[in-house]
Amino acid sequence: MMNNVTFLNPGFFWLFLLIPVAIAWHIWKRNKISASLKVSSLNGFKVKSSFLPKLYPLLFAFRIIALCFIIVALARPQSVDISNKTKTTNGIDIVLSIDVSGSMLTRDLKPNRLEALKRVASEFVEGRPNDRIGLVVYAAESYTKTPVTSDKAVVLEALKGVKYDNLLQDGTGIGMGLATAVNRLKDSQAKSKVIILLTDGVNNSGFIDPRMASDIAKEYGIKVYTIGLGTKGMAESPYAIGANGEFLYQMMQVEIDEQLMKEIARNTDGKYFRATNNQKLREIYEEINKLETSEIEEQKFYNYDEHFRPFIYIAGLLLLLEVLLKNTIFRSFI
Question: How much is the pTM?
Answer without folding.
Answer: 0.63
